[in-house]
Amino acid sequence: MSEPAVEQQHPAEPGFEPTRPGRYVLAAAVTMALVLVIGAVLITVLVRNVESADLSSVAVYEDLPTTHVAGDVDYDVTPPVGGPHADRWLACGVYDVPVPNENAVHALEHGTVWITYEPGLRRGDIDRLAGQLPDEGILSPYDGLPGPVVVTVWGRQLVLDGADDERLGLFLSEYGDGHTAPEPLASCFGGVDVTGEPTTSA
Q1: Which terminus of the chain has a lower count of CB atoms within 10 Å, N or C?
Q2: Which of 156, 92, 165, 91 minimizes the C-alpha distance to 128?
């Protein structure tokens, strides 16, 4: 009686593996899921940054007097946003020392932007602020600010987190034309310096 035939097994060649389509599909699905999750996180962060960069924190002050006075004025807001002021305005420019409030307020009346910063701010940050200062603008240190940087026009003020706060650009775009000031078509050029001496007009 003959023995039944046995099917001979052929070992696979070295390095050969049977194709497994399911493995590639799973890898592709995992990769796609990771891309979607990372994308969602990035979009959320970007949207939050855009939403946070708004002017909702701008403080508004109305009905500010425009009278000229002699001597010092005790302002209610730091730095002042308007009110009684000296008869000469402060000249536009970048100052490395505090400037007289009363002259700076007169410049605000002319539509000037006043950017103030805490003494001791890094040189690079001061330069960054100076680079954004409008022609009709004043930059100066100021003691006792409510934040690292404060930007002010007549009747409007915004406390900033620093020189890189994106809201500074928004504020300048909205208020830098001086439209909140009583004399928006006047200029801060030709005013006085910190010593009260007249400067030449630009």
Answers
A1: N
A2: 165
182 lies in a domain? Answer: no
- Does 135 lie in the same domain as 64? yes
140 lies in a domain?
yes
Give Cβ neighbours of residue 161 (< 8 Å, ≥ 6 apart): 147, 148, 149
- The predicted-structure confidence for 144-169, as pLDDT tens digits, reads as follows 999 999 999 999 999 999 999 999 99
Domain-embedded: residue 76: yes
Q: Convert the pLDDT of each residue in 29-62 to its tens digit.
A: 667 767 675 655 455 444 444 445 799 999 999 9
Helix H or strand E encompassing 48:
helix 21-52
Residue 27 structural domain: 16-52
CA dist., res. 7 & res. 178, Å (int): 96
Range list of β-strands (E), the chain: 59-60, 93-94, 113-117, 137-141, 149-153, 156-160
Domain count, the chain: 2
- Per DSSP, 152 falls in state E
* Distances 175 to 34, 155, 160 between C-alpha atoms, Å: 44, 10, 15
Helices 167-175 and 123-132, axial angle in degrees (round to 10): 30
Q: Are residues 140 and 101 in the same domain?
A: yes
185 within domain boundaries: no
